[in-house]
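User: Study the chain.
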Amino acid sequence: MTTTVAIIGATGKMGRLVSDLIARTEGFEVVARLDSHSELREMLHAQIAVDLTRPDVSRNVVDFATEHGLQVLVGTSGWTQDGIDSLARRLAGREDTGVIIIPNFSVGSVLATAFAALAARFYDSIEIIEAHQPSKVDSPSGTAVRTAELIGRARADLGPVSAPHTDQRARGQQVASVPVHSLRLSGLLARQDVLLGGTGETLTISHNTLSPSAYENGILLALEAARTARGVSVGLDQIVDLGFTMAGSEGASK
C-alpha cells in the first residue's frame, strides 16, 4: 500500500532531496509540495506531512498537521525542549497522530552523538564545536543541542561539566552546561566535534557530512516509522537499533 506524503518546504535543499528520494522509493508518493506561498490546507491530501521549513515556521506547520490528524516527520532544526514537551502534552492520549522530530538524518551523526553521551560519564571537561554552511539560519544546530542535552542527561548523577569563564562571550553558548561553539563557513556542509578532556588526555568524537546523500538512509527509516508513530519521538536513535541503549535517551521520547 502506498503512503501519501506532503513536503512543506519543498523548494529548499532538503525538500528537493526528500522529493527526489521518494520518487525513487516504492511505497511512498508525494502528493503535495508546499512552499512559502502555499496554504497549509494543501497538505490535507496526504497521510504524512514532512516539515522542512524554518524554526519560526515549523511549530505552526506541526500544529496544523496534527490538528487534522496527519502523521508528521519534522526535519526542521531548532526545536527546543520546551517546545517538544509542550507538543508531547498536547498529543498525550491521542491515537490518531504522532510526530517524529529528527535533528539530523545521518546515521553516522546519531552514532557520534551516542558515543559522546556514553563517554560523557568519564570526562568532566566537555565542549562542542559545530560547523555548517553560511545559509544555516539557526545556531547552535539542532544536532549540537541534542548532543549537549544527552550529555547532560548522561551526567545527571555527576553534575554539570567543568566549563570555566562562561561569562565571556567567546566561550560559546551553554546548553545543558556544555559550551557549544557555532561556525558558519563557506565550503562546509556539516561537521560536529565533541571534545572531552581528562587527566593527561583528550578524546575527540567527530562526524563530517560530505554529501547530502548521507541523509538518505535516515530519511527512509524515519518515513517508515512516521506511518505508525504516536506521541512525540525525538532523534533517529529512537527508531534505529544502535545495539545498545544511548545514555540518557530515555527522556527523549515523549
In short: Confidence is low (pLDDT under 50) at residues 250-254. The chain is about 30% helix and 25% strand. The two ends are 29 Å apart (CA to CA). The first strand starts at residue 3 and ends at 8.
